């Protein structure tokens, strides 16, 4: 869990914007962290106030808004590239969680607009929202129109009296 907090800390540029952020977590293995669903989920829950936070998670949560606001200007190059990988991962692999994070940290879409070009440059493949099915009123097939009743009547063979007399009841 600590690794993911560290990762997000780097991604969010955890410290004050005036000073460079610490680089002590720059060499963490992002692939290992992102491959651990339990770890990723617990930090997302922390950020969304849906679960408990480790001290590192709580710190990340407290500085994330400022890091987004400052465009991570005090981040190292590794932190910037790591942040982009995390964003791409969340958008492509955890779209529901990404949407919740966006709603919490960017409810007006300010940062989404601000970082749109960067995400496009990353070749982010956001899941395509399914098109809404067209609304079609149900058709009552039990009530027949006058025309359909007439067509059905014309299509049925007419039974003559002699045919009905020749039928024998089956027992």
UniProtKB/TrEMBL annotation:
Keywords assigned: Signal
Basic and acidic residues compositional bias, start-end: 147-171
Domain of life: Eukaryota
Residues annotated as signal peptide: 1-16
Region Disordered: start-end pairs: 133-171
InterPro entries per UniProt: A10/PebIII, OS_D_A10/PebIII_sf
PANTHER family documented for this protein: CHEMOSENSORY PROTEIN-RELATED, EJACULATORY BULB-SPECIFIC PROTEIN 3-RELATED
Name under which the protein is recorded: Ejaculatory bulb-specific protein 3
């Amino acid at each position: 869990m600590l690794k993911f907090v560290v990762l997000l800390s780097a991604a969010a540029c955890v410290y004050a914007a005036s000073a460079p952020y610490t680089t002590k977590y720059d060499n963490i293995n992002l692939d290992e962290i992102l491959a651990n669903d339990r770890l990723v989920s617990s930090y997302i829950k922390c950020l969304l106030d849906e679960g408990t936070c480790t001290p590192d998670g709580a710190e990340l949560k407290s500085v994330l808004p400022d890091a987004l606001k400052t465009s991570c200007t005090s981040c190292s190059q590794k932190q910037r590239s790591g942040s982009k990988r995390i964003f791409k991962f969340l958008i492509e692999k955890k779209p529901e969680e990404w949407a919740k994070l966006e709603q919490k940290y960017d409810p007006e879409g300010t940062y989404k607009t601000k970082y749109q070009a960067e995400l496009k440059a990353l070749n982010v493949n956001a899941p395509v929202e399914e098109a809404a099915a067209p609304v079609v009123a149900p058709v009552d097939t039990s009530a027949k129109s006058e025309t359909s009743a007439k067509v059905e009547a014309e299509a049925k063979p007419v039974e003559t009296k002699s045919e009905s007399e020749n039928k024998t009841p089956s027992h």
